[in-house]
Give the backbone structure.
Amino acid sequence: ERFIFSMSGKWIDDQDTNWDCPYVWGEWVHSAAQELTIGHSDCHTRTYVPRGGGSAQHYYSCIPDDVVWKLTPLTQKGMTFFIGAARVSEIDAVCSVPQLPAEMDSSEAAQRVLDKERGDDQWQRRVEAKRIASIRHFIDKGGNLIANSAILFSGPNDSISVSDDGTVKVSFEGFLEKTDTEWCDHRGKADKRPVWLIDGQHRTRGLAQSETGIDLEIPIIYFPPSFDLSQSAKIFAEINTLQKKLSPLHTLFMQHRFGIPSPTGKRDFKTPWDDGKAESRNSRANHLSYECAAYLASNEEGPLYDRIKILDSNSSNFAIIKAGQWVDFSRSWFGEGQIYGPDTCTLNQEEINNEVENYFRALVETCNHGDWEDGRHRWCLKANPKGLIQRHGPSQAILKLYPHAWLKAKGLGADSPISVSVFKEVLAPLTWVDWLDTRLKGTFLTGGERGRNALRVWMRNAIEHGEMYGQDEVMSDEIHSQAGRGILSHPGDGEITVVGDKKWPYGGKALVIRAQRPANTLATSVWSIIDSKKVNRSPDNPSIQSSRGVAEYTLRYSKWMDDVDHMDIRVDWYNTVTPPGKALLRLIKP
C-alpha cells in the first residue's frame, strides 16, 4: 500500500469501491510466460500461461473423463437456458474466449463490420493480466468469495450434448489434440475448447491460476446451441454496459454487429433498420454512417484505406479519425430532411458510399496538386508527416464540411452520385491551404472544439464564396474576415445597426440592435454596454448566438437610462486568433 501511495499519491483505504488501482499485487508474474501444475483431473500435467496472461494451454497425459454438469432449466420468452454451478477447473478446461486479436489492421476490422460472418469467433475484449492477478490475489485472502455467475455458450459441436433436463456433457476426446507424448487443448495458436466463456473470463482465469480458487464451485449460466450466437453476444454486450465498460470503439463494433438497441439515439443499432418506420430512423442513420466508414477504410483503392480506426487494436499512426467520431459527425447526413435522409435520398447504400469516397478523392487531389514549390504532398499518403486535417481532432471539420460541399455541388447542377471532378470544383478554394504549415497547428490544433469549429467555419466560408486565391492570400495573417483568405488572421471589425427608426428605448418600446457576423468568425458574439457614467450595463448573459449571419439583442428600457446621456455598445467576434473583431455603436439619448 505504501508503494501504491508513493506512485499514485493515494491511499487504497481512502478510495471508493470504483477506484481503479494502477497496480495489483502479483501482476508482475505475467511479464514472462509461466508453467502451472494445477489443473483439471489426474490426467493434467501442466498449464502453459503465455506472457501477458493470455489464453492458457493445458496439457494432459491422458484424455480426462467427460465433464458433466447437472443444471436447472429456465425458460424466458420461449427460450430455454440453464443455471447451476460448476467447478472452476472444469470451466477453465473446456471453455475458450472468442477474443479479438491483439493487433488488427483498420481495413480488416472494417471488413468485419461489412461482413458479420468474418471473424465471428473473435469479438470479446482481450484478457487483462492485471485483472487476472487481482482476482487471484482476492481469492487467496481470508474469507473472500466469488458469487458472480460466469456465462457460457456453445454452438453445435460434436463434443457437447445437452438434455432437456439440464444435463450438459462435454467430451475431451472430441477436441484435445495429440502431440508426441501429450494431449493439448490448442492446435498451434487455435484454442479448440468447445464452450465459449461469454462473460467472466477474468474471474475464471484468475481463480484457475490459484490453488485456492481452482477447486471452487461458482455459479454459471449456460446458453445451449438452441441460442444463436447473436443472442449470446448481445447478452455479453448488454452486461458490459452495466459492469466494467467496453471501450467506446469495441462497444460500437458490438452494437452494430449484433443489432443492439439503445435508448441513446446516436448509438441505437436495433434491427431491422431499413423498414421505413419512424422509430428506426436513428438506427438507419447509425448503420449507414458506420458502414460507410467501414467501406472507406476497407477499400484498398480508396483515399481512406486503413485511415479510420475501427477498433482499439488498429494502428493509430495511419488513422486520421476514430469510427466513433465518424458516426458522431456524419450520422446527421442521414437524418430526416438531410442530404441522405429517408425522405430525400434516392441513392442506394453503395452509391452513397461511392459519392462520399468521391468527396475524399477530390479533397486529396486538391491538397496534392503539382504546383507546390517544395513538391511535397499536403495530404500525406503515408503515416507521416500528417497535415492538420489528417489529425484526429481537425479531421472532424472535413465531415462537417461535407453537406455544404454536397449542396454547393448540387447547386452547380451535378448529377448523382456527384463525381470527383465536380467535388474538385467545389473544393478549389482550398487548393492553396498549406496543411503542413506549423502555424496552422498552433492556430487550430489547440483549443479543442473551438479550434475545430473555427477551422470548419473558414473552410465553409471559402467554398461558399467559391473563389480560389493564391497561397500568399490564403495563408495570410493580415487579411481579416475575407472569405477564402487569411486563414491565420484574427477577425476583422463588423457592423452594428439599430433596427427601425428608433434611437433610444422608452417605456414599452424596446430597441432591437443587430450585429453582422464577419466572415471567418465563430457563431457566438459577446456584447457589452457601458453607459455615459462608465457603469457596466452589459447583459447578464453577454453571449448571443448568431443566426443566418446576424446576432440581435433587444435593449429594453430601464430606470437607469433616465440618468445617462448615451451608452456605448460593443460586440466582439472571435476565431482562434487574437484580438477579436469588434463592432461599436454609440446610442445618444434624444
Q: What stands out?
A: The first helix runs from residue 2 to 8.
